[in-house]
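Margin note from the TA: students keep mixing up input and output lines. Inputs are the sequences; the output is the structure of the whole complex. Example:
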Amino acid sequence: MFDFWRNRGSTAEEKRLAALGAYLDNALPAGERERLEAQLTQDAELHTELEHMRVLRAQMQAMPRRRVPRSFALDPALYSRPKPQPLLQAYPFLRAATALSALLLIFTLALGAFRGQFIGGAAANSAAPQAMMVAAVEEAASAAEMVQELAPDEAIEGAGTNAGARKSPSAEATEDPEFQGSEMLATPAGVSGTPATIEEPAMGVFAAEQAQLSSGAADEDIVAISGEGVLAVGSDAGGVAPSLLPAIQIGLGVVFLLFFILLLAAWRRSRLF
Amino acid sequence: MSEESLVQQAQKGDIVAFNHLVVQHQEMVFNVAYRIMGDPAVAEDVTQETFITAYQSLGGFRGGSFKSWLIRVATNRCYDELRRRKRRPQTSLDEITDENESFAFLRSPADGPETHRQRVELTLVIERCLQGLPDDQRIVAVLGDVEGYDYQEIATITRVSLGTVKSRLSRARAKLRDCLQQTGGELLPPAYRLETRGHQAK
């Protein structure tokens, strides 16, 4: 398979000898043959080389054959019928099946990679928090605007605070909004604004209300992210159901491995003959 | 009976038909094995194994040249034996017996005694030079220059590319030429003597 790699060190001299040998054996393409013949008429050294090669080949072909020391006929009592070779008979099929299953496997893996299946592996566990943070950041911005409108003097500090509360979309935020409003201040790494205490409980209540309003959409996204193991936020699954893709990949992988092992066994067997 | 029908009968389990094929090809297989292995006793074993393997694996023969298929089986057996010997080097008894004994086994056309002697001596020199080649080059040289297979057949038998066959054969020829010039130059008939590079052949 890697013959070209082994032959990479061929020197000009070796290439010249190979061309001479191929010429002698009538195995040189027409164009190269004509070129070499033109060289031979001009280069006496090359001509001598060719003659040496011709003599050597003649000597080897003239070597007398050895007589066989005995008959190699098989004893009918010792050898049974030729064994059937199902693997060898199936070799062309196995080769095609292995190639096909490999192509399908590559296709499904590429499809998975395209959907972010593999980079989601490590991130899958943190997908929900990440999504929560994204939602929180977005809502923090909008809440900040609203708070600015309602209470311009306290807007900046409150915005960061409320965003922290709304970052937990559904359950936590609704259980104890006021407590959440103050406790979750330290949680959002991506949220700008420094931790601050809530001076007005009304702000926490407002945050809880905002969280409830936005929890529906955020929940859908998070479920999609954590359930599918796909980073694509949203509900665009399209084509093969995402939960089926890993199963198909595993199945194809097993089929490919099976065919590949059988192909190797058949190939190994075929090396005997 | 044609070779094809013999093969078909042998594939059905007719060992008598297979033995007809053995008789037809045993000398060729034995000589290929001998030139590659350089030891008559080992060549004998390889030849026997070749025919046993060939018979038991006839189901895997998918048409084409039976002779080439048989040579491929023999070559693979030689490769196996060469690998085995590399793992466990051993000295054959034949290597330490008088080389003149092998004269009796050489088949030669009806030459005079002197010509026959010269031919046998030259053959021994070439065989010794062949044994000095790396295995891959020796096998290609035996198949190409001794047995007369073309590049494509050699590539099929040895399962390497055409370029590799060309390359191995040319390297083998260059080494054989050097070896013959060093050890056997005086044995060659004047018309066949190899001069050093740069001089015209006589």
